[in-house]
């Protein structure tokens, strides 16, 4: 165990190594570490912000959904009312139309009846004359009796 | 493995020494030097006769090599350091750097750009030097013996010169920062006016030698204890490995394996203690409490 020059050699080596480490090893590693620390901090802050934004957005979307629902409900109500109105109106129309049709049909029927009656009358008159001719076996002066026959026919 | 057990142990504890032998010195093989020569010592006696002007080539070589290995690895990671997803090496380096940085921040509260890299260098370097203790004791010396080197001590921290070299550098930093922070007057005052002080001027002067003695001893004890603690632990560990290697082959692993596992703790702990004490001493040097 001799004390010798090795002490000084080791001290010199130590000095050089420490200086090298101080200049070329420590600063870049520390810089990278701090930069990453900052990045992570920024990332965390950003995620916090994003979470807050998300919450806000959710709230907003819920609000909008609620509003939309209300609007939709109002619209539906309006539409229902309108539909009812339309149904009522069309019912009314249909009723009127039907009424009109019925009246028309009635008038037509009346007309036809009258026509048929007229035709019947005319025919009856002719049948009656024919019947009377057969009964009398004589020709009946149509013109002479027509007045009477017309009167008869009018009574039918 | 020639010779008796004590020869084996002594051989293992002898550094490969390069130094100056004086003129007229009789070497181990009987030849007499006609002039002063720089040479490798052939025996332990030659090595100690070289006195102060000798280098432990093996200790210094291994320590510088391991220091370069540490710097190479860390520089490699530092050059490629990104703040994105780190790779394996960068991850490891970052863990070490953060660990050291936290240790420094916990203990030292001032502003100093030197202490953190200094601590990192100390921790990694001392750890690597200690780690050589886990290489089987005969493995590397035998290889170097085949290559022609008579002695080879592969664990630099079992050489008191290496640990003293580091602790004296730390000591120099302690003195430097003490004077830088407190000024020469403040530093001298710290050494002479504490722990005993008095309001009476005469008494104060009388107490100066006492304080100087106490403070001087506690100041000088710092580098000595720092060096000897590391050296003692590793030297003892190495010695036990050497003793285990003397046992018959079948018995060796039953002892060397548990000891090696236990030693993993010791080498890490000693590297950590050396680093922590350096930080503590330097932060004490920065404190201007008196």
TrEMBL record, chain A:
SUPFAM superfamilies membership: F1F0 ATP synthase subunit B, membrane domain
Membrane topology listed for this record: Single-pass membrane protein
Localization in the cell: Cell membrane; Endomembrane system
Membrane-crossing residue ranges in chain numbering: 6-26
Quaternary organization: F-type ATPases have 2 components, F(1) - the catalytic core - and F(0) - the membrane proton channel. F(1) has five subunits: alpha(3), beta(3), gamma(1), delta(1), epsilon(1). F(0) has four main subunits: a(1), b(2) and c(10-14). The alpha and beta chains form an alternating ring which encloses part of the gamma chain. F(1) is attached to F(0) by a central stalk formed by the gamma and epsilon chains, while a peripheral stalk is formed by the delta and b chains.
PANTHER family documented for this protein: ATP SYNTHASE SUBUNIT B (PTHR33445:SF1), ATP SYNTHASE SUBUNIT B', CHLOROPLASTIC (PTHR33445)
Similarity annotation: Belongs to the ATPase B chain family.
Function: F(1)F(0) ATP synthase produces ATP from ADP in the presence of a proton or sodium gradient. F-type ATPases consist of two structural domains, F(1) containing the extramembraneous catalytic core and F(0) containing the membrane proton channel, linked together by a central stalk and a peripheral stalk. During catalysis, ATP synthesis in the catalytic domain of F(1) is coupled via a rotary mechanism of the central stalk subunits to proton translocation. Component of the F(0) channel, it forms part of the peripheral stalk, linking F(1) to F(0). The b'-subunit is a diverged and duplicated form of b found in plants and photosynthetic bacteria.
Protein name: ATP synthase subunit b
Phylogenetic classification of the source organism: Bacteria, Pseudomonadati, Pseudomonadota, Gammaproteobacteria, Pseudomonadales
Gene name for this UniProt entry: atpF
From TrEMBL, chain B:
Pfam families, per the entry: ATP-synt_A (PF00119)
Protein origin, superkingdom: Bacteria
Annotated compartments: Cell membrane; Membrane
Keyword tags: ATP synthesis, Cell membrane, CF(0), Hydrogen ion transport, Ion transport, Membrane, Transmembrane, Transmembrane helix, Transport
GO MF term list: proton-transporting ATP synthase activity, rotational mechanism
Transmembrane segment boundaries: 60-78, 114-132, 233-253, 259-282
InterPro entries registered for this protein in UniProt: ATP_syn_F0_a_bact/chloroplast (IPR045082), ATP_synth_F0_asu (IPR000568), ATP_synth_F0_asu_AS (IPR023011), F0_ATP_A_sf (IPR035908)
SUPFAM superfamilies hit by this protein: F1F0 ATP synthase subunit A
Any one Gene Ontology BP term: proton motive force-driven plasma membrane ATP synthesis
GO cellular component terms given for this protein: plasma membrane; proton-transporting ATP synthase complex
Membrane topology (UniProt): Multi-pass membrane protein
Function: Key component of the proton channel; it plays a direct role in the translocation of protons across the membrane.
PANTHER family referenced in this protein's UniProt entry, alphabetically: ATP SYNTHASE SUBUNIT A, CHLOROPLASTIC (PTHR42823)
Similarity field: Belongs to the ATPase A chain family.
The protein's name: ATP synthase subunit a
Annotated organism of origin: Marinobacter profundi
